[in-house]
Fold:
Amino acid sequence: MSKAMQIERKMWSKHYTYDEWMEAQGIPIHKGYYIEDLRTLQLGWWEERQCNSAFIQLVGQEGVTSARVTEIPPAKTLPPVKFALDEIIYVVEGRGLTTIWSGEKRPKKSFEWQKHSMFLIPHNYVHRLSNMQGDKPVRLLHYSYMPLTLSGVRDPNFIFGNSYEGPDIQNEMDFYSEAKMVQQNTLDNSWGRRAFWYGNFFPDMRAWDKLDANVRRGAGGRSVYMQFPDSEMTCHMSVFDARLYKKAHRHGPGRVIVIPVGEGYSILWEEGKEKVAVPWHEASCFVPPNRWFHQHFNVGGEPARYLALHPPMQFHGHAEKVEDRAKDQIEYVNEDPWVRRKFEDELAKRGLTSLMPEQAYKDPNFEWSKGMGKQ
Structure:
């Protein structure tokens, strides 16, 4: 462990080993409730990685999940990195190539990606990232469970450059083919879903249209849940139409949300306390803090999408029993009237009016039909 990290631990400290490592890298660390635009986020030179980069540690993320932005200069390739953990990468801007390998006897695997692609770098593999554009930089958002791992082992050398080589990944040669739908034999009674999308490569989250109705959250929303091979990492993306908003809900910490497309805002609040408004558009990023209610509003002229990168299942924070989950969601009929007034005021600033059905505010059993809210 470096001298910079040999810090005396204090009882009940919430300054984690990951924080010590992060601060020792000498690049910007962005905190607060949200990042307005990952495309213009201030970065700094990271000598070890030979690129400009910055860490993101928003309220509700600390000690659980890691996020950072990497920029690759035009026509450049970054030095290879071996990382012991799975890492999700979302392409904020640009077009490029990733090459992965493990050991001398296994063949290298390369695949191309573009803006709004999402893919997983598997644990214990070496990866190398290249910018295929000659005139523009690439920006990538990285997401992993590194803080939890460092709290356990307290040694970054365990995570980076470890000589251990894991077993082969099943079907490695088609590891980065487009994701496929997996149909479950029985209905998940907790969430009412029979299918999810399984794979390591999602070519364009802005255009991904393989969505199912998500009636629980209102606003006529549609969602897709995604799982990666040989990994406990998961995520989901939700889409909802213009001039509508979803029901308030809450869950555990560490869930990083990035916006592929749309214009709107979210409200975050701890029960009984002041609300925080978070504006968003393409490439915005935010994290709902642990057990804080949050609610998403589309004030633009087109459907909005948000991609949620999930923390470990242990931190999902949902009630175990379906009947208890009412405590984790606020129905429209029970919400603070201020919520509706603010939404209508925000639309009026843009010369628009709400498409929320009046009946949704009166009937707790109101059901959204397909296409409701569209004009």
In short: The mean pLDDT is 89. DSSP finds three helices and 26 strands in the chain. The domain at 180-361 is CATH 2.60.120.10 (Jelly Rolls). The CA atoms of residues 253 and 290 lie 4 Å apart.
